[in-house]
């Protein structure tokens, strides 16, 4: 069984640029969630995708957007990067049942300079 | 507000001791709780979960206790090993649709041999 994989593992961008992060969900999982984890903090919910539709969103501005593809993989896009966007971005997948645990990838470390 | 907190940011134990990591949650409507372990450079790893209709659940070397009266969650690790050294997060699901997890700030467990 393949777990959640994310790419790239590290990324450096300049303020104002745009970035796309990618995630492949665990086999058999149809729901993908994205979280932002600042240094020393717990992950914060960005949004979730189910059947290619956004299925819930946290307190993040519209410049954070996403996509889910028919194979359940997903992208996180961030426009107009700000210094505070520097963080570990985590993707998690789940089988889509209420109250089932999320399975996380190892994240993409984004640094904005 | 809806937040999950932890009583202690760090916990140091000797190898072989039992460890207890505590967590307080604020939303009495939360119905699902999860403990995650995060090692340096990795994503959160699922340890154990519990639903609000239970007060105890056991796994391999781990036990989660839920006290809904005082909104308290704890993770007990038996015979702690150096490999258990990591940051431990509790997370709650306050969304009846099961979309978003709210994480606490984490407890760093250090195990010395």
Keywords:
heterodimer; A: 113 residues; mainly beta; four-stranded antiparallel sheet; 11 strands; 50% strand; B: 113 residues; six-stranded mixed sheet
Number of alpha- plus pi-helical segments of chain A: 0
- Low confidence ranges of chain B: none
- Count of DSSP helices of chain B? 0
Coarse structural class of chain A: mainly beta
Order of helices and strands of chain B: EEEEEEEEEEE
Low-confidence stretches of chain A: none
Helical residues, percent of chain A: under 10%
Beta-strand percent range of chain B: over 45%
Query: Percent helix among the residues of chain B?
Result: under 10%
Number of strands of chain B: 11
Over the alpha carbons, how many angstroms does the gyration radius of chain A reach? 13 Å
**Broad structural category of chain B:** mainly beta
Strand tally of chain A: 11
Largest sheet features of chain A: 7 strands, mixed
- Shape descriptor of chain A reads globular
For the largest beta-sheet of chain B, the strand count, sense and barrel status come to: 6 strands, mixed
What is the first-to-last residue Cα distance of chain A? Answer: 37 Å
Structural commentary:
The complex is a heterodimer of chains A (113) and B (113). Chain A has 113 residues and is an all-beta fold. Chain A is built from no helices and eleven strands. In chain A, strands 2, 4, 5, 6, 9, 10 and 11 form a seven-stranded mixed sheet that branches. In chain A, strands 1-3-8-7 form a four-stranded antiparallel sheet, with no helix packed on it. In chain A, a hairpin with a 6-residue loop joins strand 4 and strand 5 (44-50). The mean pLDDT of chain A is 94. By secondary structure, chain B is mainly β. Chain B has no helices and eleven strands. Chain B has strands spanning 4-6, 10-14, 19-25, 32-38, 45-51, 56-58, 62-67, 72-77, 86-93, 101-103, 107-112. In chain B, the strands form two sheets. In chain B, strands 2, 4, 5, 9, 10 and 11 form a six-stranded mixed sheet that branches. Chain B has a five-stranded antiparallel sheet with strand order 1-3-8-7-6, with no helix packed on it. In chain B, a hairpin with a 6-residue loop joins strand 4 (32-38) and strand 5. Chain B is globular. The interface between A and B is medium-sized, with 25 and 28 residues.
């Amino acid at each position: 069984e393949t777990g959640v994989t994310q790419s790239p593992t590290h990324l450096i961008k300049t303020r104002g640029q745009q970035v796309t992060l990618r995630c492949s969900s665990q086999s058999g999982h149809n729901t993908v969630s994205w979280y932002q984890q600042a240094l020393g903090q717990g992950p914060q919910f960005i949004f979730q995708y189910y059947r290619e539709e956004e299925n819930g969103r946290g307190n993040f501005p519209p410049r954070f957007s996403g996509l889910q593809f028919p194979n359940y993989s997903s992208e996180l896009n961030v426009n107009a990067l700000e210094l505070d966007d520097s963080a570990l971005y985590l993707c998690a997948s789940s089988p889509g049942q209420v109250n089932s645990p999320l399975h996380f990838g190892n994240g993409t470390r984004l640094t904005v300079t | 507000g809806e937040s999950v907190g932890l009583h202690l940011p760090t916990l140091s134990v000797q190898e072989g001791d039992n460890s207890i990591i505590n967590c307080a949650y604020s939303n009495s409507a939360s119905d699902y709780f999860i403990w995650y372990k995060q090692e340096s450079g990795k994503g959160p790893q699922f340890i154990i979960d519990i639903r609000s209709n239970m007060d105890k659940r056991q796994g391999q070397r781990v036990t989660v206790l839920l006290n809904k009266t005082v909104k308290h969650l704890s993770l007990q690790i038996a015979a702690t090993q150096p490999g258990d050294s990591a940051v431990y997060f509790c997370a709650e699901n306050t969304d009846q649709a099961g979309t978003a997890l709210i994480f606490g700030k984490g407890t760093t467990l250090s195990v010395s041999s």
